[in-house]
Amino acid sequence: MVTNLSAKTKNMGFKHLFKAKAYWSKGEKSENIKTYSRNHTVIIEGKPVLNMSAAKAFKGDAALYNPEDMLLSSLVSCHMMSYLYVCAQTGIEVLSYADDAIATLVVESDGSGRFTGVTLNPKVIIANTERIDEALELHKKANKLCFIANSCNFPIEHNPICETE
Q: What is the mean pLDDT of residues 46-65?
């Protein structure tokens, strides 16, 4: 099994395919909708197994990652990598990057739900004080490049802070 397949596509640049497998099995307590196990594994070839569950609010194991955690983590990570890329392109030396992101999930009375927004709060330390304004502005460019942000159907706000040591 190949997890990342790349191919050049007409008028699109490159197309990459990613694969994941999910496994769940009936536990001892699966007859009742309130007590069946939400724990499962996700396997991506060549990487550590992800032991996952539903979020605690949905009767999952709070000690395990859940799909909502992973969506937010993907967005935070992708924005950070896109930001580091655009900083490198412009010669801004980033010394450290941290984010304390928040996502809002709304669950409707019928049980359906969706993310209604994410707020990224990146705190970036750069080497050159004279480039702080430029470094702050680059978050907009990073958002335009972020594959995950481009795939989301909810607003993503940015409240960046940039400082020097």
A: 95
Overall pTM surpassing 0.85 (yes/no)? yes
Question: How many residues belong to the chain?
Answer: 165
User: What's the helix, strand, coil split of the chain in %, to 5?
Assistant: 30, 35, 40
Map tokens 């769940």 to a residue. 24
Domains of the chain: 4-65 (no CATH), 68-164 (3.30.300.20)
d(CA 56, CA 66) in angstroms, rounded, equals: 9
Helices vs strands, H then E, count in the chain: 2, 11
Say which residues have a Cβ less than 8 Å from residue 94's Cβ, sequence separation at least 6: 83, 84, 87, 124, 125, 126, 127, 135
